[in-house]
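During the reporting period the student researcher (J.K.) took over the structure-prediction task from the postdoctoral fellow and processed the backlog of single-chain submissions. One of the processed entries is reproduced below for the supervisory committee.
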Amino acid sequence: MMRKNILVIGGTGLVGKVILRILQGRNPDYNLFVGSRQLGKTANDLVIDVTNPKTFDCIVHNKIDLIVLCTKDSNNEILKFAIQNKLDYIDITKPTPDLTVAYDFAKANEQSVNSRIVFSSGWMGGIVGNLIDYVERDKRKIKETNLYIYYSIKDLAGKSSANFLAENVCKPFIVYKNNKPEEVKHFLDSEKFNFEFGIGKRQAYNLDVPDLFILNQIEKIPTVSVKMTYNSKFVTGLMGYFQSLKIFNIMSLKERQLLFGSSGNGDQTVFEIVIKTHDKIKRVSLQSVKGQAELTAFSTVLHIEKMLSDTLVSGIYFSHQIHSAQEIYEALNNYSTINLKIS
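J.K. obtained the following structure tokens:
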């Protein structure tokens, strides 16, 4: 078997580093390359600037098999390059507006896709779809899916999510009610939700994550919503207050970035999925003791391993579509810092 050459672009960032650590531990035979804008210390550190395709030649020279994108690529230069050069590609970073553009581009060029193009920007590495599959195989039975997120400001947080909120907090986004798109805004429409793992009752507010698009437009679930709460009830209330009084609108982008950009030294992250069929309500609760970066990275590693297993035919996928739900459930359930409950 040939050694697989994997390039992690944005590999010096928060999630990129964790992906490399977990990959190395589980697959010592993989040959790992790190792409970033700065010149690194080893031959496996490649200078790649996603805004400058001239820097992509090293991808071909180093016979890369799979590109893992962990950095913002607004013009989809890496996606275009991967399709042109028949390279496997997985992207874990795109917020909903960017994801829909990239997906449409890939679909429009489907005839020339001769590799595996995988979009994995759903919440925590795109595993929500797999967990829904695990508890309800038949998507046609599902009337409604709600995702509730517990987000700790003490957690290690990457720049991209903070910047996304800073840039988009004043803009409306789409949720779906009976397949009708409805415009809503972040931090409004609060709902009381009782979180597992000792967190208890919290006010949870609107949040835009790509699962809204994926679950409605791809999986055809008629009603989909996502709500989040911070670990601090004070901060959660403050965000709702700022939005309802339009205070975000008068803040500069830099001020909003400072507001959302606080990053701690690490804390747990929790999410809950409530799945409603016409006769049942099922609930999946997941806790990552080591926080968001660890969970996102571990999910991504599972996708990478699947993509390199040679069982996946060329095409365009969302990450939950490349696995059996059972595989993902077992992998998550057996991981030392992840706890899963299904009720």
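The committee noted the following: The two ends are 43 Å apart (CA to CA).
J.K. will present the remaining backlog at the next meeting.
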